[in-house]
What does this fold into?
Amino acid sequence: MIGSPDFVASPIPPRCLHGIGDDATLCIAEMHRAVEVLSLLALSSVAHAALPAPAAIDARISAVMSATGSKGLAVAVIDNGDVVYVRTYGVRNAKGDPLTPETVMYGASLTKTVMAFVTLQLVDDGRIALDTPIADDLDKPLPSYGPDPVFPRKYGPYADLAGDERWRTITPRMALTHSTGFANFAFLEPDRKLRIRFDPGTRFAYSGEGFVLLQFAIEHGTKAKGLGVDVGDLAQKNIFDPLGMTRTSLKWRPDFATNYADGWDENGRLEEHSRRPKVGAAGSMDTTITDFAKFTAALVRGWGLSPASHAEMIKPQVHITTKTMFPTFQTDLPASSQRNDLYAGLGVIVFDGPHGPGFHKGGHDDTTANTMVCIDAGKRGVVILSNDVRTEAGFPDVVDFILGDSGTPYGW
It folds into this structure.
């Protein structure tokens, strides 16, 4: 929206502006309502403030790339649930080939948001329930399953859980809210064994391993319940294809080889794009800025899910009480130092900023930096994909330049 907001008459009745007299009860009620109306108008004004012009966005991103040394960045802007701007900057490889809107980039942990979406579609179909233990969807006890015969490290080492019956209490909701009690990955444990560090469901601790367990339950669950289906196939059929995400997949495809991005680490060293041969719910997705912008806009609009499941995905569920996301297991901050609005949703982190409720998700590895920030008011969002991890330092600048002060918890 461009221009000044229209003048809005006071919603307080004139008779209540000059002493309330005999109409005290009525006036007090109407004044309470007036405060609510004015608050909504103020929020609406902030939410629908004009977005920066394309030239201004380009200039800001160019400045951020210069400051961080970034080699490549792609950005998309969503307004009122529609993609209104997509642009790429920089290069995709050592040869200097340009990064384009159709360049395949590593999605990293943005995959987790897609996994949550897949799961909630199964919930809507009645094939899985958020609060039914995963144990109930399997044909035999979890610790009795061995490695995958094709990809031995596709799933967790579930035999390690023998003797700890708490695995029986883990639910899809716990997996999607990072509250299973698992480390981020079992191989990060000192002895590389999978273990449950706290009673499932009692606190937040970021865990890709929980998402992998949920993938296992969907792919190896009881066929009579409609499970035993490939997560990658579900995402392709029910999300990517309907949205026209033609260059997105949860595993590498040969047709991506014509235009893909290598990445740069924090020291400026180049690393070739990994061609991941298997679906991994914690972070195997390849995508483009064009495609992931379509998904983000659909997510903001509530497309593809029942209203109940969409609301469930982005509502506060597990309070986040630590100073930072990593290391995974930390002592809680004192209550007075905790951010009261910071919670895990399902596959996203939710917060309450100056614009009102919002959610975000990041994606990161040694050469990848991604972020998705969405604000409910105005159905606005920003997606940034970068093939240079150094770009990450500039995310708060770019996001808040486009959306205004969003309140995104980049300091966490």
Summary: Residues 211 and 372 are 19 Å apart (CA to CA). Residues 54-403 form a domain with the Beta-lactamase fold (CATH 3.40.710.10). The longest helix spans residues 24-47. Confidence is low (pLDDT under 50) at residues 1-15, 17-22, 37-46.
